[in-house]
Amino acid sequence: MTITTVAVIGAGTMGSGIAQAFVQAGFNVRLVDVSPSMLDRAQTSVDKSLSKFVEKGKLSTNEKSATLARLSTHTALSGLADAD
Asked: Average pLDDT in the 46-64 region?
């Protein structure tokens, strides 16, 4: 079985960090939390972290955009239906 899409439940500090690690590794990630504000915070956190990699020359802006595109957020568990 090939894993391409990972589910992460909870968008707190740990969940957003796990999600970032997987999207940077090339996986699609479905991040779910009941709180839309937590999901927004997690996306902002991942974006800021990736921006630091761009500033240090470890990631191009195109790679950053591609990485962020692999992260999707959901407020219901049904958003994880296609996760492996």
From this structure: 96
Beta-bridge partners for 7: 30
- Domains with residue ranges and CATH for the chain: 5-77 (3.40.50.720)
SS (H, E, C) 13-59: HHHHHHHHHHHHCCCEEEEECCCHHHHHHHHHHHHHHHHHHHHCCCC
Q: For residue range 27-36, list pLDDT tens digits in order.
A: 999 999 999 9
Strand order across the 28-32 sheet? 5-9, 28-32, 71-74
